[in-house]
Write a structure and sequence with these properties.
The chain starts with 10 loop residues before the first helix and ends in a 6-residue tail after the last helix. It is built from 22 helices and no strands. The protein has 2 domains: about 50-95, no CATH class; about 105-155 and about 210-385, no CATH class. It has helices at about 10-20, 20-30, 40, 50-60, 65-75, 90-100, 105-120, 120-135, 145, 150-155, 155-170, 180-200, 210, 215-235, 245-260, 270-285, 290-300, 305, 315-330, 335-340, 350-365, 365-390. This is ER-bound oxygenase mpaB/mpaB'/Rubber oxygenase catalytic domain-containing protein.
């Protein structure tokens, strides 16, 4: 359907890659960007996870949601073999996820997990204020979120779900077959298929030609580039140092998560140079922020005010201010203006102080101690979110 990179001549695309965050990514990664391979990737805008969709049609659409989820949990926790008496769609999906790819390197998985833990709360700041917030600048990417009620559900719930997924796939041995991270990957895959099929069934206005298929493979690649490339760039901007092995480990970890989620392997980058070059091609097909983008951005900003983890209003206001400061520091000014991020006084003070402290912390505290402390801090934040979202009257 698509003839070429539709937004490659637009002002927002040119600015992003010559003056904004894209320029920083090129400098960070040593990428050599061009549109030469656009047609190689473009078909994935209309490509989806058919194996996941078949399971949803056969299991979720033929019984109650909870009953279907329990059945899938059985298959997640117990090996499915070619001989088992299970539905064919389930057999096909689990034979794929249970097959360990030849390229998988457990040492690299471990290094990637250690970097996620070692960077402590900076990891969570990066996910929230750069990866999630920056993603809202791409209007077509947000369409499934808006249609499936992300604004109505609220940012607290959405953040809690993202955090739950991210923490559980980035611990030691989390992605072993039938382990917690593996379980989260399969369940997330089912959610994507369920959402995609529901949108196609119930939302007549979905514009496939312009927006691609809902939750298509190319958009999935971009989302998981957020968890690897953009995340790594954010840690770097906040003054965290990492080894080449840790850096490759991050890409390896998300490549394997992507494999479990049914993203075609040829879309999953191995390093920051490749990831930036792939991301460049994808952004050439995305318009800049629209009204929905601004609503999503402000919902995320105001999450701090709605979230009862902090008891007093002044604490919540202060947390919101700190997140705004980090957003301005991590995202380029044009993106912040498009998303209508409020301008605040002394906005560089907190991130620059944090960067200085990080460099000192790196120099004086052992790697092992930092991994242990980071794991503990991240689990505490996740547990706080769990406690809040599980209160039945929260919404």
């Amino acid at each position: 359907m698509m003839t070429g990179p539709r937004f490659s001549d637009s002002e927002h695309f040119r600015h992003f890659w010559t003056k904004g965050n894209g320029k920083q990514l090129i400098e960070f990664s040593g990428a050599e960007v061009s549109l030469d391979e656009f047609q190689k990737f473009a078909p994935y805008f209309y490509h989806t996870d058919e194996a996941g969709d078949e399971v949803v049609k056969e299991i979720y659409f033929t019984r109650q949601f909870l009953e279907a989820s329990k059945e899938i949990e059985l298959f997640i926790r117990n090996p499915v073999s070619g001989q088992d008496d299970v539905p064919e769609s389930v057999r096909q999906l689990f034979l794929q996820t249970q097959k360990i790819p030849d390229w998988l390197d457990y040492n690299l998985l471990r290094s990637g997990a250690e970097l996620c833990m070692r960077c402590n709360l900076d990891s969570l700041i990066s996910l929230r204020d750069y990866c999630l917030m920056g993603g809202y600048d791409f209007a077509y990417l947000n369409k499934p979120l808006i249609i499936t009620g992300a604004l109505k559900k609220g940012a607290v719930k959405r953040l809690s779900e993202t955090l739950d997924f991210w923490v559980n796939v980035t611990r030691y041995d989390a992605l072993d077959l039938h382990a917690k991270g593996y379980e989260f990957a399969i369940k997330t895959r089912m959610i994507h298929s369920f959402a995609r099929l529901s949108i196609k069934k119930h939302y007549q206005e979905w514009d496939t030609e312009n927006w691609g298929e809902p939750i298509n493979s190319w958009d999935m690649m971009a989302t998981y580039t957020g968890f690897s490339l953009v995340f790594l760039h954010s840690l770097h901007k906040l003054g965290n140092r990492f080894s080449e092995e840790e850096e490759l480990g991050i890409f390896h970890l998300w490549k394997y998560v992507g494999y479990l989620l049914g993203i075609p392997e040829q879309l999953l980058p191995d390093n920051k140079k490749q990831a930036t070059e792939y991301f460049y091609l994808w952004t050439s097909n995305q318009p800049s922020a629209d009204r929905d983008s601004v609503l999503l951005a402000h919902s995320l900003l105001n999450e701090s005010l709605e979230n009862p983890i902090l008891k007093y209003d002044f604490q919540r206001e202060n947390l919101r201010y700190l997140h705004i400061c980090c957003t301005w520091f991590l995202l380029d000014d044009e993106v912040c203006k498009r998303l209508q991020i409020p301008d605040v006084p002394l906005k560089k003070a907190f991130p620059l102080t944090k960067r200085t402290i990080n460099r000192m912390y790196d120099a004086f505290v052992s790697r092992k101690a930092r991994i242990r402390k980071g794991d503990s801090s991240q689990m505490k934040v996740l547990n706080d979110y769990h406690n809040i979202t599980q209160r039945s009257n929260f919404h």
